[in-house]
Amino acid sequence: MKLTGIGRMVVFLVAFAVVAATLPAQQQVAPMSPRERVVVGYVPIMKFATLYVANTRGIFDKYGLDVEVQSVRSGTEIIAFLTQGRIDVGGIAIVASTWNAWNRGMDIRIIAPGALEPRTGSPTMMLVRKDLWDEGTVRSVADLRGRRVAMAGGPGSGGEYLAAKALERGNLTIRDIQALNIGNPDMPAAFAGRSIDAAILGSPHADQVLGSGTAVVLEKDLTPEAMTVAFVGSGQFVNDRPEVARRFVLALMEAARMMQGEEYLAQENIRAYLTHINTTEEAIRSGAPVIYDPEQEISLEGLRDVERVHRENGRTEYTTRFDPAEVTDLSFVRWARARAR
Predict the structure, then answer these.
(1) Identical topology for domains 5-10+32-118+227-337 and 125-220
(2) Closest by Cα among 165, 160, 158 to 98
(3) What are phi and psi of 207, to 5 degrees?
């Protein structure tokens, strides 16, 4: 039986003490000497929090890495910086432009996962206007045919991918609706003004809309346990500095293991989150926990689904399947898994 991401986490938490008592000591990993500098670009969201914990809690330092983190506005910027050699590693969402760049020969490799979507209770959902629901006009996804559905990011974005996954439940595609690109902060006003019929929206804006009574939940848990964000390394970093890349991924894995269960809200971790993103401790503590696989498995199956959806939506410059295995290097995660604490 294949374990899901959540299942792996449960097994890890339950069996760790027994395994630790019965297995020989893990291999000691020497720090880099001399120390190595690694420049990392990231979009400041919680899905990259393994980076924040590894950086703030001294895990990178333990392995002889001087990691410089740079907050940027979008994954597009990160890709540009990677190809220009300005950064070594980036935390990005895997969107249509990423697949197009890979198809054109971009030398960037997926080396570790970001956060996973939860199996249940995801803060991202499809909402529909309450008046349409109450009238019986829209009671299922299939009823959205021809209607105005808003999502943040536009064609080929992560928002469009989520919308497409929701629409699949009603045997619809992006082509069957009027897709509108509206920023998340503007969604509450759009629902209140009835300028949209439905939307893909996450916390805290979804909570705001639901609290106002202008919309209800139409679909939820759109992509359970999906990996839609990842850490990618430049070809130069991966090929020319593999020992550095291995220790970088090992540090991310150790950070993930320090964020399981109640430890997710440990004060040291909270401090790490707040150091890297613009949010509040209250928002983190009251929100749904973000999920990080302690085994840091890279889901090629999930990535294939992301690629398929963007390609079938006509957002890629190519029409035949592009296998993410071609741009994924699993060796770093496997090396780290054999050595992580």
Answers:
(1) yes
(2) 158
(3) -60, -40
pLDDT of residue 332: 98
For the domain with range 125-220, which CATH number is right: 3.10.310.40, 3.30.450.180, 3.40.1030.10, 3.40.190.10? Answer: 3.40.190.10
Q: State yes or no: pLDDT of 22 exceeds 50.
A: no
CB 197, CB 179: distance < 8 Å? no
Q: Do 126 and 133 meet the contact criterion of CB atoms below 8 Å apart?
A: no
Beta carbons of 161 and 228 less than 8 angstroms apart: yes
In the predicted model, what is the mean pLDDT of residues 134-149? 98
d(CA 79, CA 133): 42
DSSP sequence for 287-298: SPPPB--TT---
Provide the CATH topology of domain 5-10+32-118+227-337. Answer: D-Maltodextrin-Binding Protein; domain 2 (3.40.190)
